[in-house]
Write a structure and sequence with these properties.
There is one protein chain. The protein is built from 12 helices and 15 strands. It is α/β, with parallel strands linked by helices. The strands form 4 sheets. Strands 3-4-14-9-10-13-15 form a 7-stranded mixed β-sheet, sandwiched between helices. A 4-stranded parallel β-sheet has the order 7-6-5-8, sandwiched between helices. The chain has a two-stranded antiparallel ribbon with strand order 1-2.
């Protein structure tokens, strides 16, 4: 535990290096007055103190504002790394070939923005629950979109297998399946940039990082970097109802929590449909395998995260997406668990405008049986119903 402080601007240096032979430049210092294209504007997002949550818990709850990236989300970071890796690896050439990816929307936007710098068209497959705003946003960027039915990843008609099939049909050299779920450049982007920025912006005064994963890239790269700086930093995973993976309690000889796919019985009891997009893994992806996770909290529904989104609009003036709502809800409960005086960091993954037809629409929520909670005050919702984690898991103590 560290004494909470008020935060000022902390500047850092740019990162230049290679990953698997790919030249990477990530601007983690204060942005120049003029950026050399959108790639140079990715990263170095501000850290925002969430006053309402901090004051309610006696902790410093900070959120990294990734919705301020050029493409509007945290996915701009891995998109930049994965496009450059594909180019440097010869998987695709500038002005020749097509980028193909399975995305819940934000990675697609990041890829479409970066692909334009190299004259590359994009084809994206998306799960059926993707908001209309996201699909139309990709189309406005010139991408082709294919909305696929929901289902297990073993179903060839779902969005991940469909993307692979499209790339295979186009042929090697003509298309590149980015595969963010298994592409380790995804996690590397956060190792080289996000984790480093968090440490420098907090000046090393961080006690915990909490995040709701999807592909696992963010929590993997960020946790590995923070643990290098200080093994004492706790890393917590927030799991939504849509997650189909669970801590593997048989993996007792590991230093951190390891995950496995749920059994059908566990899936029926613990998982189910979720309106929160971009989070909730169906299986343990390669990026997620590398995460250094100390603890997990699991939520039984989406009502609390949706209420947190709406509360942030009303109280903090922050227009955020559903995954950010879950992140902030998790940060609040972790702060209550750890006690006053701790500094807890999470992430605002994206903004709320692309969810006007979903989590900000009462009629939509009613069709999905998501409770619509009163949220004028934090006390209206934060400690009741599915706002409260129903299951906490800690790593084994050796």
């Amino acid at each position: 535990m560290r004494t909470a402080v008020r935060w000022g601007l902390a500047c850092a240096a740019a990162v230049t290096g290679t990953y698997n032979g790919v030249k990477i430049h990530a601007n983690t210092s204060s942005h120049p007055l003029v950026c050399n294209g959108v790639a140079d504007a990715v990263g170095n997002t501000p850290m925002i103190r969430i006053a309402s949550l901090s004051d309610a818990t006696g902790c410093e709850i900070l959120a990294k504002a990734e919705h301020l990236n050029p493409g509007g989300s945290i996915k701009d970071r891995p998109a930049l790394f994965m496009i450059r890796e594909a180019l440097q690896g010869g998987k695709i050439k500038p002005n020749s070939g097509t980028v193909v990816e399975a995305t819940a929307g934000n990675t697609g936007v990041g890829l479409a923005v970066q692909a334009k710098q190299f004259g590359l068209p994009c084809i994206f497959t998306l799960p059926q629950k993707t908001s209309t705003e996201k699909v139309e946003g990709l189309q406005h960027l010139g991408a082709s979109t294919i909305v696929c039915p929901m289902g297990p990843t073993t179903d060839p008609n779902t969005f991940q297998p469909r993307a692979q099939a499209i790339a295979d049909e186009l042929g090697e050299g003509n298309a590149c399946f980015i595969n963010q779920f298994e592409n380790l450049a995804n996690g590397e982007a956060h190792y080289q940039t996000t984790g480093k920025e968090i440490w420098e912006q907090t000046q090393g005064k961080i006690d915990a990082f909490v995040y709701a994963p999807g592909t696992g890239g963010t929590i993997s790269g960020t946790s590995r970097r923070l643990k290098e700086y200080s093994p004492a930093v706790q890393v917590w995973c927030a799991q939504s109802r849509g997650s189909g993976i669970i801590p593997d309690e048989s993996a007792v000889d590991t230093d951190f929590i390891k995950y496995r796919k749920m059994t059908p019985e566990e899936d029926k009891q613990l998982a189910g449909p979720s309106v929160l997009e971009g989070i909730g893994s169906g299986r343990v992806y390669k990026n997620f395998e590398n995460a250094k996770i100390d603890g997990e909290m699991r939520f039984s529904g989406d009502g609390g995260a949706v209420a947190m989104c709406r509360f942030m609009n009303k109280r903090e003036g922050l227009n955020i997406g559903g995954s950010a709502g879950l992140n902030l809800l998790a940060a609040y409960h972790l702060a209550k668990r750890m006690g006053p005086g701790n500094t807890i960091v999470t992430i605002i993954c994206d903004g709320g405008d692309k969810y006007r037809s979903t989590i900000y629409c009462d009629d939509f929520l009613k069709t999905k049986n998501v409770p619509i909670m009163q949220c004028d005050k934090l006390a209206d919702f934060v400690d009741s119903g599915d706002s409260v984690p129903f299951r906490w898991t800690m790593k084994s103590q050796k």
